[in-house]
Specification:
The complex is a heterodimer of chains A (about 170) and B (about 180).
Chain A (H helix, E strand, L loop, with lengths): L2 H12 L6 H20 L2 H17 L10 H53 L4 H12 L2 H6 L2 H23 L3
Chain B lengths: L2 H38 L4 H20 L1 H29 L12 H24 L3 H20 L4 H27 L1
Classes of the chains: A mainly alpha (about 170), B mainly alpha (about 180).
């Protein structure tokens, strides 16, 4: 559709001609959607924006100044709606990031709670068992060197068995 | 329903909503003018006839939009002086409402209606010639100005009614011709 034709339809619609609404809309729709897509880079959001822009434009057709360019007016509406949509999306993004941040905080708190519970359970074991588990976790070679590997492994297994038992009895888990 | 069809439906609804609001505005304006007329002049059956006609005219033309709407609202403004001026003149002369106009228009009433209508008619005609759709603007303006003026001058009798209508038409045509000539020079 040519620009001059769009202008004619817009002027007619502004004069209250209902017959001009359909051709005007069908002329503007692909242009506004394409323009909004270029602005936003999101086809679905661009269609929402084009719809909002054209709804506003059709609601204000009586204010159309026929000395102005119809297409420019339509694209001005689309630009404003795209800007609003972008801001709305940014706000939603900020909220999502904030929620993500709060999820991390919860996970961190849970992890801390687990570490605290594990340390409390370790405290119920005898010092030899704690020493073996600590040496296994920290890769401390000093204890390993003083013991035969098989002995270290057996002592570690026994210490872990006692740790599990203590954990189950403290936290009532199977 | 496809996305463009849905969007078109919403756009059409927005368009019609705007026109409906304009029609309601027209009704509100006609109600205000009727209240003013009732306050200034005596009321009879013709008052209600003119008030009803004005309400329908402003409602329909407001809904129609474009030059019809612009002309209708300009016509109300043009019709206000013929609505008010006779009451002022008669009040100044008789010390009250147009008592002597009850049975027939006095020359004072008639001249006041004709004079103000002619003057305002010239402005309407001039303004119509500069509008994008002069015939529509002029028709709507003359109709609403005549009905507004008749709410005042119509109550003074047939003479007042003829005065306001003739004044508006004569003034409108004069204003239009003058504007057209000025544009050609």
């Amino acid at each position: 559709m040519e620009r001059a034709e769009l202008q004619r339809w817009m002027v007619a619609a502004a004069d209250g001609e209902r017959a001009a609404l359909d051709p005007l809309f069908h002329g503007l729709w692909p242009i506004c959607v394409g323009y909004a897509t270029r602005l936003l880079g999101d086809a679905a959001l661009a269609e929402d924006v084009a719809q909002e822009a054209l709804v506003r434009l059709f609601g204000q057709l009586a204010r159309f100044d026929r000395s102005r360019d119809a297409l420019t007016w339509a694209l001005t509406h689309t630009t404003w709606q795209a800007r609003t949509a972008r801001r709305r999306r940014q706000r939603r993004g900020e909220v999502a990031e904030h929620r993500e941040g709060s999820t991390d905080g919860v996970a961190l708190a849970e992890e801390r709670e687990l570490v605290r519970a594990a340390l409390a359970t370790l405290a119920t074991l005898n010092p030899h068992d704690v020493e073996v588990i600590d040496a296994a976790l920290s890769d401390d070679d000093e204890l390993r060197r003083t013991l035969a590997p098989a002995t270290f492994r057996k002592r570690l297994e026994r210490a872990l068995d006692r740790l599990r038992l203590s954990w189950r009895s403290r936290h009532d888990t199977p | 329903m496809t996305r463009p069809e849905l969007a078109l439906r919403h756009a059409r609804a927005a368009f019609e909503r705007a026109h409906l609001v304009a029609a309601l505005r027209g009704l509100a304006i006609s109600a205000a003018v009727a209240v003013l007329a009732i306050g200034l002049h005596r009321t009879d059956d013709t008052t209600w006839l003119f008030a009803g006609s004005l309400a329908i005219t402003l409602g329909v033309l407001g809904w129609r939009g474009g030059a019809w709407r612009r002309g209708a609202f300009a016509g109300v403004l043009a019709g206000l002086p013929p609505l008010i001026v006779p009451a002022i003149i008669v009040a100044a002369g008789n010390g009250g409402h147009c008592a002597s106009c009850a049975d027939g228009a006095s020359w004072t009433c008639l001249l006041a209606c004709f004079g103000t209508s002619s003057l305002l008619g010239m402005f309407v005609g001039h303004r119509a010639s500069t509008d994008a759709s002069p015939p529509r603007f002029a028709t709507a303006a003359i109709a609403s100005a005549a009905l507004t003026g008749l709410l005042g001058c119509g109550t003074t009798g047939l003479g007042g009614a003829i005065g306001v209508v003739a004044g508006l038409v004569a003034g409108g045509v004069t204003g239009w011709i003058v504007a057209a000539r000025t544009a050609h020079v």
